[in-house]
Amino acid sequence: MASPRLETYCCPNRDAATQLVMNFQPEVFCGVCIGSASISLLLTILQLLPKKGQSPRKMPKASSSSTILLLISICDILGALGMIFRSSVWLGFPGFIANISVSNRTDVWPSTFCVGSAMWIQLLYSAGFWWLFCYAVDSYLVVRRSAGLSTIVLYHMMTWGLAVMLCVEGIALLYYPSLSSCENGLEHAIPHYITTYVPLLLVLVANPILFRRTVSAVASLLKGRQGIYTENERRLGTEIQMRFFKIMLVFVICWSSNIINEILLFYLEMQPDINDMPLKNLRSAALITWIIMGVLNPMQGFLFTLAFYGWTGWRVDLKWRKREIPWESMSSSTVGENAYPSPVNYQSNLHDSKKILTTDSQQTDEAISMLSEANTSSDKRLTRSSPIYQGW
């Protein structure tokens, strides 16, 4: 799981709340993390691999949104690998981990492993949060025709730059002036927790606003095409809205336990004695949410692929080919595969004015198709009957 308590535990003089959760059934907790991260890792990779029976289609245009979704999955995969490695060492070498609690020691490897593995997990999941925020921004800009593959460079700079800067800054403040004397008070820990949870809270607050504005912009585009808003356009708008809803639902499910756990632990830290009987229920709630975090945090990778692509099936095709982003299939087709040609194919013999209108319509179609739900039946239904996918 991804929690700033992992870095705090690397301090020999850690606070009582961190000691409470990290010493609660560590073997069981590490086993839960390994199991959840391994299942999520395998299923995520299975989701991303090409499947047998899926004929590759020629995509008319690559999109920054599809690249961002792939990068989010990569961050989740690498974060899950970090969890598996850290928990495996924790279980396999308990004596090695026990040296972290010794203040005066010459062996620096336990602390190096503790800090390095915790930073790896935090950095990858923080980068995933920033990429998810970039996806919301890009979705809105795509509909407004203000984004494209050129903006992916800016997203890289913002995502990796902010993730590294916040991670390094939080760790430096936590371990100041040295690893052996850190965590002598909340003034060391609070900046570290803020830098950890800023991107998470940003996604929780900003993404729903951006998604709602994107859905409104899509509805305006659909209504403005021919001045009508048919059932097919309404269904397409609903599919896009449902995609955004599933993304936020997965995010809330996987990370709300982290926020609840931190609130409980910070409250316990401010008490004179964390072991008082009146605090028993709070301690139990903190330990329960701690275990829940170990289950849900690693599962984000697999759950996100379900929200992005739907269930892609079990039959893997090991012959490499270009991965098709499902919602882009709405703007590409192959006549020989019972698909329908792109609107531009119907306009090849029309007048120049008609071609200009078709080009503008196709650009809007491509922008909308990047955000729409992937599903073969709806693709065919919309392509046949909706004016969005017919020639004018």
UniProtKB/TrEMBL annotation:
Gene3D superfamilies: Rhodopsin 7-helix transmembrane proteins. Residues 40-301 form the G-protein coupled receptors family 1 profile domain. GO terms for cellular component: apical plasma membrane; lysosomal membrane; melanosome membrane. It is found in: Apical cell membrane; Lysosome membrane; Melanosome membrane. Its main location: membrane. Pfam families: Ocular_alb (PF02101). One of its GO terms (molecular function) is L-DOPA receptor activity. SUPFAM superfamilies: Family A G protein-coupled receptor-like (SSF81321). It is a multi-pass membrane protein. The chain crosses the membrane at residues 28-46, 67-85, 119-141, 153-178, 190-211, 244-267, 287-311. It comes from the Eukaryota. InterPro entries: GPCR_Rhodpsn_7TM (IPR017452), GPR143 (IPR001414). GO terms for biological process: melanosome organization; regulation of calcium-mediated signaling. The keyword Cell cycle does not apply. Keywords: Cell membrane, G-protein coupled receptor, Glycoprotein, Lysosome, Membrane, Receptor, Transducer, Transmembrane, Transmembrane helix. Receptor for tyrosine, L-DOPA and dopamine. After binding to L-DOPA, stimulates Ca(2+) influx into the cytoplasm, increases secretion of the neurotrophic factor SERPINF1 and relocalizes beta arrestin at the plasma membrane; this ligand-dependent signaling occurs through a G(q)-mediated pathway in melanocytic cells. Its activity is mediated by G proteins which activate the phosphoinositide signaling pathway. Also plays a role as an intracellular G protein-coupled receptor involved in melanosome biogenesis, organization and transport. PANTHER family: G-PROTEIN COUPLED RECEPTOR 143. Belongs to the G-protein coupled receptor OA family. Interacts with heterotrimeric G(i) proteins. Interacts with ARRB1 and ARRB2. Interacts with MLANA. This is G-protein coupled receptor 143. It comes from Struthidea cinerea. The lineage of its organism: Eukaryota, Metazoa, Chordata, Craniata, Vertebrata. The gene is Gpr143.
